[in-house]
C-alpha cells in the first residue's frame, strides 16, 4: 500500500521534480501551496502518513501548520524543508514538533531516504511491546505516547519522546552518540549531525531536570555518549 504524503511547497519549479520523484518511489502525494490551503486539509489529516512542510511561504510559515497539528494531538511524522541550515530555524522546527529537516538544495534521493527512515521509525514506535515503561520517577505510557515525571505529564516533541524512550529502555547503561543517531535517525548516520543531537539533549534536560546544568537523570559521559540514571521519586 502506498504511503500518502501531504506536501506544502510554493516553488513551482521544485514541485514538478518532487512529484515525479516521489511517485516513482511509490509515494502518493497531495501538494498544497500555501498555509491557508493546508489548513483546509487538516480536518482529514488521518488520511496521510506524513507531512512535508516548506518553512517560508507567502502567507506564513510551515511552523504554524506543525504547531496546529501537534496542538490537535496528532503524532503524524513531519519533515521541514529549510532554505538554510541556520541553527535558529532548525531549532524552531524541532521545538514546535518537527521530526526531521532537510536543507535546500537537496538531492531527491536523499529526501526519499529520509521519508522512508521516518516512516519506518513511526511504524516501530506505534507497535510498542509493553503498554508502560517505568524507571524510578519516570513513567512512559507507550500506547498514549506520554511521559510522566513524578506523575506530571511532560510536554515533549515527537523527537524528544523517541529519545527519552531509547534512554529509559537502556537505563543505567552508556549509549554512544552513534547508537542514538542510528536508532533515532537513518542508519546512514550523516543525515543528522552531533550538533542537532546536542540540541535535543539540551531541550530534554530543560524539561526533566530540576537544574539542567547539574543533571540527575540524563548524564553526559564525555567522549562516549549519554546515560540515563534511575532516580527514585
Automatic annotation (TrEMBL):
The keyword DNA-binding applies. InterPro entries: CheY-like_superfamily, OmpR/PhoB-type_DNA-bd, Sig_transdc_resp-reg_C-effctor, Sig_transdc_resp-reg_receiver, WalR-like, WH-like_DNA-bd_sf. The modification 4-aspartylphosphate is found at residue 54. Residues 4-119 form the Response regulatory domain. Signal peptide: none annotated. SMART domains: REC, Trans_reg_C. The keyword Membrane does not apply. GO terms for biological process: regulation of DNA-templated transcription. It comes from the Bacteria. May play the central regulatory role in sporulation. It may be an element of the effector pathway responsible for the activation of sporulation genes in response to nutritional stress. Spo0A may act in concert with spo0H (a sigma factor) to control the expression of some genes that are critical to the sporulation process. This is Stage 0 sporulation protein A homolog. It comes from Agathobacter rectalis.
Amino acid at each position: 500500500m502506498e504511503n500518502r504524503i501531504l506536501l506544502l511547497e510554493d516553488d513551482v519549479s521544485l514541485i514538478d521534480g518532487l512529484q515525479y520523484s516521489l511517485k516513482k518511489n511509490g509515494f502518493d502525494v497531495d501538494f498544497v501551496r500555501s498555509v491557508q490551503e493546508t489548513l483546509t486539509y487538516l480536518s482529514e489529516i488521518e488520511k496521510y502518513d506524513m507531512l512535508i512542510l516548506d518553512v517560508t511561504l507567502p502567507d506564513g510559515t510551515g511552523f504554524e501548520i506543525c504547531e496546529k497539528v501537534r496542538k490537535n494531538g496528532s503524532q503524524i511524522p513531519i519533515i521541514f524543508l529549510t532554505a538554510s541550515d541556520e541553527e535558529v530555524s532548525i531549532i524552531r522546527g524541532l521545538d514546535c514538533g518537527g521530526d526531521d529537516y532537510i536543507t535546500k538544495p537537496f538531492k531527491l534521493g536523499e529526501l526519499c531516504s529520509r521519508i522512508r527512515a521516518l516512516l519506518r521509525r513511526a511504524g516501530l514506535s506505534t507497535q510498542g511491546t509493553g503498554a508502560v515503561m517505568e524507571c524510578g520517577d519516570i513513567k512512559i505510557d507507550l500506547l498514549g505516547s506520554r511521559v510522566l515525571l513524578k506523575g506530571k505529564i511532560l510536554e515533549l516533541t515527537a523527537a524528544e519522546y523517541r529519545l527519552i524512550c531509547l534512554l529509559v529502555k537502556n537505563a543505567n547503561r552508556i549509549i554512544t552518540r552513534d547508537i542514538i543517531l542510528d536508532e533515532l535517525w537513518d542508519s546512514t548516520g550523516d543525515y543528522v549531525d552531533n550538533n542537532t543531537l546536542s540540541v535535543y539533549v539540551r531541550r530534554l534536560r530543560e524539561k526533566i531536570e530540576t537544574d539542567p546544568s547539574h543533571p540527575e537523570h540524563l548524564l553526559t559521559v564525555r567522549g562516549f555518549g549519554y546515560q540515563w540514571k534511575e532516580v527514585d521519586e
